[in-house]
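User: Hey, my collaborator sent me this sequence without any context and asked if I could get a structure. I don't really work with proteins. Can you help?
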Amino acid sequence: MGRLFGTDGVRGLANADLTPVLALELATSAARVLTGTRAVGVSGPGSVTAPAPSGGPGRVRPVAVVGRDPRASGEMLEAAVAAGLASAGVDVVLLGVLPTPGVAYLTGETGAALGVVISASHNPMPDNGIKIFAAGGRKLDDAVEDAIEADMQATPTEGRPVGAEVGRIRRDEVAVESYLQHLRAATPHDLTGLRIVVDCAHGAASELAPEAYRRAGAEVVVIGGDPDGLNINEGVGSTHLDGLRAAVLEHGADLGVAHDGDADRCLAIAGDGSDVDGDAILAILATSLAGRGELAHDTVVGTVMANIGFHRAMAAAGITVRTTAVGDRYVLEEMREGGYSLGGEQSGHIVLADHGTTGDGILTGLQLMARVAETGRTLADLASIVQRFPQVLLNVRVTDKSVAGAASVLEAVAAAEAELGDAGRVLLRPSGTEPLVRVMVEAATTEQAGTIAERIAKIVADAA
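Assistant: No problem. I've predicted the 3D structure and written it out in structure-token form, which is a compact way to encode the shape of the chain:
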């Protein structure tokens, strides 16, 4: 059996790959690994004292918080996750529909032992996923994920809590207010005077994101804000920017931002209709923080997908770039190890370590809007700091992602790199969440990048 965890939790087709049984087993093992066994009356991190029946001595149980996006299968999987956690002796607080970064924040804010998010992020509605946060709202490292998988395979039958030691389950949908207050406090400048459009992807931020932007002072137009459980990411959100672009131009907005289904991403459209991707957002925030003396070690963390133009812009600004593999978990690991305050991905995952433990699309949107309001410059002007090299990204569907290392593929990549020289680059990357090999080419012209990308993609497909 292959590794269960991908680059961002466990994902699959809900009720086919990601079944309630798997969700229950995963939650049970995660609880055991992240909390350990706690004897009656023995406290530990993320525990609360619960009254014992019949007036007996208090018991101490760890607590988990659970949130989800609005896709229909989330209701089913939420029940399975809650049952698994409770069966491991963990008290469960159901937060309802809430963005992934909101669950991460509340995991730390409430002192919970772990947090669980049921979401497949930007994936289509039939998919779903389970993301797990450790105490403090931090993503799991590989060793912890491996320990959870090992525990699942061990399937212990003894030592399970019984009677009064079984965890209890309750709902708390008021906790979202604490997250909203956190977002407001982390906004460095009032947004009064800005008209913005927000595309919520019919996802977890459909109510919360517009409220956060309005509280900061912006005039807000909402699209993609009517989730029905079936329409999440359907033609809207951070992977479908045309609707946002049209709305920005129609309403004469200063800018627009798009989130994905669980709102841990933020991409933008400037007032003139131009795209502002994660590279540009990261560059804008990096120079802003550096100007205030708040960019730790004058360093920003990016991934191998960052455009050459981003690297050149940062070098011109005197900012060092640290590069990681794709995935905000790897960005986070590098940030923690180096003590860096800012990192992110071209896809719009931006991590502001002074305000959060994971990528937060709404927080990113607030910081970006604050920079526009503070400087009085248009977003297009601010984004012009990055002079992008044309970049073409093709997704090749495969049955075995190891074809990325096939001899014929490696030969094609080497030939392309020789052709490009210093004026471009090639990157092949197996997706961590889908059966895809991603072929990315940067070159001096779009035509050259496209020609080379298509050539390599065909060889990948043939090798598959």
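In plain terms: Confidence is low (pLDDT under 50) at residues 38-58. You can pass these tokens on to your collaborator as they are.
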